[in-house]
Amino acid sequence: MEETLKQQPSTCLKIVLFGPESTGKTTLAKQLAIYFNTLWVPEFMRGYLQKKWDEKGEKCEIIDLIPIAEGQMKAENEAAKKANKVLFLDTNLLEIKTYSEFYYNGFCPPEIDTCINESKYSLYFLTGIDVPWEIDDLRDRPDEREKMFCIFETQLTNYNLRYEVLTGSKSQRFDSAVKIIQELIKEKNGC
Predict the structure, then answer these.
(1) Which residues of 169-182 are buried (b: 16+ CB within 10 A; e: fewer)?
(2) Which Pfam family would be a valid example here (predicted)?
């Protein structure tokens, strides 16, 4: 099973949009992919759980975590083969782990944790909670945004991952992200 959760080697920069629900990750991932003429990977969990909700009126259960993680890694690995120097990810396994531990009393399938430790990303953009919360079928924590932001930031710190916090309007976040990514590209190219 762990083989389906493993990140495949890639030469592209991998940038993860990371943070609590309704903080603009999807919007920013799409904008950045267009700007840098490359691909972005949608959050597999969202489609998976929306389908489950629409068909059965059910929410996420522990048994859903591995299929969600496998779907996310499969999409990431496929996109990394086709990306143009940079790949934007609307989430990754660390986000799945963060939600799993929050909703299931600290539990996360050990296979997911193992693969998190083996995966490499160039940078995480931690998206701030200073944008309006938007309701949908899956979002359920409008009053716990600050708490969730702290949980997400703690995960990044615990794993000693490189990250930048993005706040402000959509255009401010986009402009900040572009500058940071351009610097990363220069770093990678040795310029």
Answers:
(1) eeeebbebbeeebe
(2) AAA_28
Phi, psi angles (nearest 5°) of residue 123: -165, 150
Q: Which of 16, 28, 13 has its CA nearest to residue 116?
A: 16
Look up the CATH superfamily of 2-184. Answer: P-loop containing nucleotide triphosphate hydrolases (3.40.50.300)
Whole-number Å distance between alpha carbons of 178 and 175: 5
| Count of C-beta atoms within a 10 Å radius of residue 33 | 21
Phi and psi, residue 14, nearest 5°: -115, 120
| pTM given for the model | 0.91
Residue range 86-122, pLDDT digits in tens: 999 999 999 999 999 998 999 999 999 999 989 999 9
- What is the separation of C-alpha 41 from the centre of its chain, rounded to a whole number of angstroms? 9
